[in-house]
Amino acid sequence: MVFTLPVIETDRLILRSIEYTDVEALFAYFSRDEVTRYYDLESFDDRDQALALIQNWKDRYERQEVVRWGITLKSSDLLIGTCGYHNLKKKHLKAEIGYDLHPEYWGQGFMKEAVSAILTYGFKQMALNRVEALVHVDNSASRQLLDKSGFKQEGVLREGLMKNKSAVDAALYSILKREYVMERKCPKESLRRMYT
């Protein structure tokens, strides 16, 4: 089966499927310690690791375990990050959100734009009722992004994540569909354009 996702267009970004041709771009930023500092992976030192990650996302998408988009600028098809859902629980209409971005694009609002788009997709097209995020407590940038995106912190899971073979505390965030619709005044046709 071909790995395909609906393409989502925002003001500045195109969210599309992640392809094997993205391996160099993915390796370029997953090989940087500032990117993997709070990630559940170590920094890559081989392009085969980036290839394996792409394959993992493809395999898990086909098993309906993960929905992951590549993030590109409208002006270029170069992958600058990824975002999407994992830990999908269809029975409970919930999923966990995840994202990563090349450091050259940090602080410009790109990830907030991407997160807003996939929240709309998750609540409307995937019929999710709840989206969660689990974040290393020291990851202030990610926590600020979640705050700005309408998530609420529910608490801290003591030693809830493993990093470098050590248990670390994790902040649990969530946003509910009714909160997203109410706070964002999400219109009926909220995605600018979506096509396959």
Automatic annotation (TrEMBL):
<keyword id="KW-0012">Acyltransferase</keyword>
<dbReference type="Pfam" id="PF13302">
    <property type="entry name" value="Acetyltransf_3"/>
</dbReference>
<protein>
    <submittedName>
        <fullName>GNAT family N-acetyltransferase</fullName>
        <ecNumber>2.3.-.-</ecNumber>
    </submittedName>
</protein>
<dbReference type="InterPro" id="IPR051531">
    <property type="entry name" value="N-acetyltransferase"/>
</dbReference>
<dbReference type="InterPro" id="IPR016181">
    <property type="entry name" value="Acyl_CoA_acyltransferase"/>
</dbReference>
<feature type="domain" description="N-acetyltransferase">
    <location>
        <begin position="13"/>
        <end position="187"/>
    </location>
</feature>
<dbReference type="GO" id="GO:0016746">
    <property type="term" value="F:acyltransferase activity"/>
</dbReference>
<keyword id="KW-0808">Transferase</keyword>
<dbReference type="InterPro" id="IPR000182">
    <property type="entry name" value="GNAT_dom"/>
</dbReference>
